[in-house]
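Note to self: the last two entries modelled the partners one at a time, which told us nothing about the interface. This time every component goes in together.
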Amino acid sequence: MARTYDTISFLTDYGNVDEFVGVVKSVVRDIANHVTVIDITHEVPAFDVRAGSLTLARAISYVPSGVVLAVVDPGVGTNRKCIAIEVGDGEGVLVGPDNGLLAPAVAMAGGAGRAVVLSNSDYQLAAPGTTFAGRDIFAPAAAHLCNGVDLYELGDPIDAELLMPGVIPLPREEGSALVAEVLWVDRFGNCQINVGPGEVAHLGEHIRVTVGELVGAPLTRVATLAANFSELGTGAVGLVTDSYGMLALSMDRRSAALELHIGPSDQVVLEAVIDGTDPRREAISSPVNLRINR
Amino acid sequence: MARTYDTISFLTDYGNVDEFVGVVKSVVRDIANHVTVIDITHEVPAFDVRAGSLTLARAISYVPSGVVLAVVDPGVGTNRKCIAIEVGDGEGVLVGPDNGLLAPAVAMAGGAGRAVVLSNSDYQLAAPGTTFAGRDIFAPAAAHLCNGVDLYELGDPIDAELLMPGVIPLPREEGSALVAEVLWVDRFGNCQINVGPGEVAHLGEHIRVTVGELVGAPLTRVATLAANFSELGTGAVGLVTDSYGMLALSMDRRSAALELHIGPSDQVVLEAVIDGTDPRREAISSPVNLRINR
Amino acid sequence: MARTYDTISFLTDYGNVDEFVGVVKSVVRDIANHVTVIDITHEVPAFDVRAGSLTLARAISYVPSGVVLAVVDPGVGTNRKCIAIEVGDGEGVLVGPDNGLLAPAVAMAGGAGRAVVLSNSDYQLAAPGTTFAGRDIFAPAAAHLCNGVDLYELGDPIDAELLMPGVIPLPREEGSALVAEVLWVDRFGNCQINVGPGEVAHLGEHIRVTVGELVGAPLTRVATLAANFSELGTGAVGLVTDSYGMLALSMDRRSAALELHIGPSDQVVLEAVIDGTDPRREAISSPVNLRINR
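The predicted structure of the combined assembly is written out below.
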């Protein structure tokens, strides 16, 4: 009768050097021998809830039915809540800390259904310290869910509206310019920004990109829209529609991040080439609430 | 009839850059298709048997029943022995080099039962060189054990008393001070020391911590005992009971290791705040023998 | 009737920081739930097709029957072909870009059988951009092959002779000297060269090794042939037959690469100790064609 799962998708900021990831998988294996764990990544920068939430939001559409176990948890051991949230009428459950980490992914997955605070210690490991909730609270919860334990067995129901929202920065129009922000720099140095190709269609094929204004050393390049990296040619910075459908500042076989000296959260101003104005600009952020798609 | 296993827990200093880990898993898969391999870590510092043995000792209580495959093996290809050791009446078998790497974990798991030297080449791969025992000797042994091959088939029995002991450093009292040592620095910069919370209860809530004495640049901080990282507040160094029940020098969302300029094996002196004496101190080590718990 | 597979061996230059590897595994899991994915490595240097092809060639003999999914693909999204190649009468299929990455491994596996261009979009994911063929084209192909979809369903047959060959550098004799090249530096600093032990037998036990000539700072050492690292003794550079049967410049518990300031593709000149001549030398490369072993 009870719904079971056979996959746990696993994301943390634990890194791959310490034994943390292996210990969590050991706990899962001990409780739910049939489960396959898929590592999304464990190299989210330490303590970086924003980066973790964006990574999870990018991955969530591809994650198989089952449980998502996500832990970037600088508040571990405090009174921040440990939570589990159903999405897709129970096709998936997200387990992690209530600090905004899960919120964008929950929204992408269609919004929150039932949710609980993981308060039932029967489904937790006794531990000598409070600093490894991934091992002692989250992993057992994920594994027991896979075994068919009902969500409401794991703790007290909570209204998903009361959970911490995530923050996704939105681009802002200023005059004829679009003030954007770097969301993510990938291994190859591509800088994904919070703008899709449709939002710059009115700026033409060649777009003036200015970075570094907020730190007093503005750098301007004309970036061409391109369908892939090779099309850019050697040494040119372009704007490529990336694999998630967002624009990325990119170069062919080189790092645009190194070339432009930019990283996550940095501001990027996009303008038509003919536009000569250059005012100071500030980025704005907007909260993403659970149930956003309902 | 024969006992089989379905999990191999795998720890090495191979790193995740070369193909070593993948090749070992391929060998296991070829011999024992039903086995799931759980990576404890492969980022033990190269050649660092002490770090590997401490990591394995931390993880061993959480590892599922089955085989532990552990390889940190600077003496590969020499006459150091390749061994397999049963623990828990055969609930688990540890496979690796006889250089002390396995000893603390064997002790934690209740001490050694049957043990063999992996001398039977029928259960090894032919190889062009002697430098990859993980692939050619240890992985096949682990996989064949999973298939139900008896330990004594893999080679000659050896008395576990004759195996290389591990070395776990013990803290030392000097006057009213406790001279401790850093066992491990984790990704977040927490510095686990070889002292549990019970051993400092007499020093009070606030403890004077001195590091760097042996290198001529002593640094002193007053560390407060805390239940979690957030409790410490910004910029303060504290002593938190970590997830393995040991004390760790920690900070909130920052690296205590960077703040204090300390790393594994460094000395840490703990004193009550009222104590003003400051003598030179040396750490001592004590061997941990197999069968320690018997 | 159709041949199915239960293992995908997976190599990329995606790194372990971004979610790329996890997303590819998620796609595989969704399509072919029964498959186990074995990571060969994902830390091939970004864009480095040569390093990826050598890594795959080293690993291929150990990889289980099944599908090999290999992606180092700087030309992603261009008109370079996406291909799948059968080897060993269908015991294995290699899937990846047609840029030479697969060629040496295909040759090692006995040469190419049937091959296709992955042109059938029915077995691909719709995607907002063209930059993640690993997720949208290669992973679905690998997973569908595991499910028993026939190779010829995935696209148009292509003559394997028309595929891009790999380039494996060959050593070159110059007078009494052998001009070799570093193929690979492993985690421990061992520098594998493109020479086997049989090729230096005439040079004796002690061999003069010269590096750095091409950059104007030649460094010469006398290296002793040794069966393992410990035999070398502290501080000496030796030539050890490595686990793949090639010679490697090595040291005991230290990095020969750091000691000699060399890396992949660097030239290494081997001479008998009595030889005093020292001319400038150049390395040569030779293409490895598919079907090489037929």
